[in-house]
Amino acid sequence: MRRQFPEQDSRVRTWAGRAYTDDELSRRFDQTATGSDDGLMDEEAARRLVARERESSQSDLMDEATVKRKLAEERAREREKDAVDAEEARRAAAARAACQDSSDESSRSRSRSRSRTEPPRPASKPVSFEPLSGEGDGLQSGAMVMLTNLKQAAALNGSRGKLERFDAASGRWEVKLLASGDVKAIRPDNLLPAPDTEDASAAPSSPVPEIAPRSPPPAPELTGRAQGAAASRVAAPAPAPKPARRMGTVRWYNGRRKLGAVIPDGPADATDLFIPAQGAPNGSQVPPQPGGLFHGTRVSFLPMTIKSEAANGKQKTEVVCMDVRPLAGQKGLLCGVDTNAGAKERNDDRIAAQDLHELGFLSGIFDGHRGGSCAEFAAKQVPPNVLSAYRTRAKREGSLVKLSAEKEAALIAEALAESFEVTDKAWLVAARKKDLQEGSTGIVALVSHGFAAPVEAKLAEGCAALWPKPKEAPEKEKRPGTVARAPGGIAKLFVAWAGDCRCVLLRGRQGLRISEDHRPQRADEKRRVEKAGGLVVRDAHKVWRVGPRPDNKFAKELQKGKKDGQQMSVFLSTCRGFGDPTFKSPDPIVIVTPDVKTVDLVPEDWACVLGSDGVFDALSDQEVADVVWRAMAGHGKDAVRAAKEVVQTALRKGSRDNVTAVICRFGWATPPEMDSTVAAVISSSGLENPAFTAPVEPSDDVNMFG
């Protein structure tokens, strides 16, 4: 669903842009239409950018089979390397122990016995032997040696050379390398006796090779303390093997706190592994974006053991997950939009759909009236204002780790409400300077995840509470969760709206209305408008509208029965929204304060639909749910085509307003399957009949009294 973006650029294109229709892309990226979008791209550039992002992101991800194969290859290489290192360490330790245990007297006696039996060799330049401290290691000047266990000059390990002299001051041997002729000062611990091969034949003959053994003699059998001391010298510690990557399923990950938990693959009762602050540097993204971690996301990770202090003051060890990476091929949140001017000359609806970094994915519809400038302004300003308001509140709270899930959700809801207020104030300042009277309703939906469900102990009821049975195995608690395979992790849907745009959540086969339209006929809204000094009336088309106070000249003409549509068009069919300066001052008849509702998503929730009043003037909530279900479950259409189906169905049923639909498809959930019986019922309801037309309510711009 998202990728990490620079915080300063709120207009960065996201993967949700793939779901935009051609008309939407043309409207958002046509510079000539707005005249002020110097930093935006045209349609062709946007398509190229999306293609590059898709290719670059998919190149960093691997599917599960590839990860398993690479893990197996890596483990095999590590085992082979560990075996070679252990064998080299064993041989080196054995050689050093043998050299230390053999005395100089036995070496000289073997040399004298060999000199009696072998014929004399040609005379060569005599080599001086001095009782140096290095001889205690079984090394003599002129001996052939092999360099080993060098750290600073690891490239020389395995090189052969000849001992020149021992420097008592530094405690090192001067070794002349056979390959390059260079002389290096090496400590005795890094030298091993080397057999005389063809490389050594090129060096001048010397009696020293007769003294040094060609191969390490077998270690003598020792007992008692000597055996323990020799064993301590021979047993070299083997290098610790590197931990291999493992796989698991994310139970929850909170990008705001940068903490989470992973269910490791293995036994069903395995303990969750904790994701620390540096374990997954990915914000709050979800697939299909690279690095996205959602409830139920399949991941690979690197286990690491850390030590921490327990409550009793003792040290405890814990295995945590580091370098957590999602596997490729997983579905996340997909967004599809479509908009149509309908029977009007222009389309004043605007759409917002983008990632909000650690908060989640936000989509919205802004339905403008008397022009589209206010809706355009709100669509651009509300998303960054939401993020800014949340970060300000989070900074005030200090550490988010100590906050409960309820408090954290309250911070997000307050940020959504504040973003509406801040955006409206900024627009009113600009509108008064330019004498603009435009306005807009608006609705936004934010999908935010990473909330951990608390584990509640199940209490016995009735007689069972009086006679508990401790010997019985405790019943496994069922923890709530958004994804069935990751219980305990919850994603929330935050919806904020001001006006008559609507949000419908698709839970199984049902269409659940999340928002409630702000209409003047609502009892609470009517009381608020009249208390503020406004007037609530019903026009000739039986549409309830709100207008200025009764002593206003337009209101007086209305009471006298005049029907001048141009003058009466200032009456609105909604009582909340952005803009409309004449309704904000001096009397707050129309306000922008939104209602905010929070819903915990369950495994049966598979899509969310946002629609302008042009959609729901012609279709009911359940009819919209049926259209989306039929398009996606029955015909296999994606989110974009399903949004087109909703818009076209509303137009076929007689909607004459601007019609806009946004569909957020939750890829981690599966819609109910459609059988032939249900498809026949939907077809008979008129949703697929182009000739079917239903009466609709007129929009804000029609003549109210003619």
Q: How does this model look, in words?
A:
This protein is of the alpha+beta class and 706 residues long. Among the domains are: 51 residues, SH3 type barrels, CATH 2.30.30; 74 residues, OB fold (Dihydrolipoamide Acetyltransferase, E2P) (Beta Barrel), CATH 2.40.50.140; 264 residues, Phosphatase 2c, domain 1 (4-Layer Sandwich). Helices cover 31% and strands 22% of the residues. It contains 18 helices and 23 strands. The strands form five sheets. Strands 12, 13, 14, 15, 20 and 21 form a six-stranded antiparallel sheet that branches. A hairpin with a 5-residue loop joins strand 9 and strand 10. Helix 9 runs antiparallel to helix 10. It is elongated.
The main pleated sheet reads as: 6 strands, antiparallel
Number of strand elements: 23
CATH topology type of the domain at 332-451 and 487-518 and 572-683: Phosphatase 2c, domain 1
Q: Strand content of the residues, in percent?
A: 15-25%
Segments where pLDDT lies below 50 for 5+ residues?
1-41, 122-136, 197-217, 222-226, 562-568, 689-706
| Structure classification | alpha+beta
Rg calculated over all Cα atoms: 39 Å
CATH-assigned homologous superfamily of the domain at 332-451 and 487-518 and 572-683 = PPM-type phosphatase domain
In percent, how helical is the residue content?
Answer: 25-40%
Mean pLDDT across all amino acids: 75
What is the top-level CATH class of the domain at 332-451 and 487-518 and 572-683? Alpha Beta
Shape from CA axes? elongated
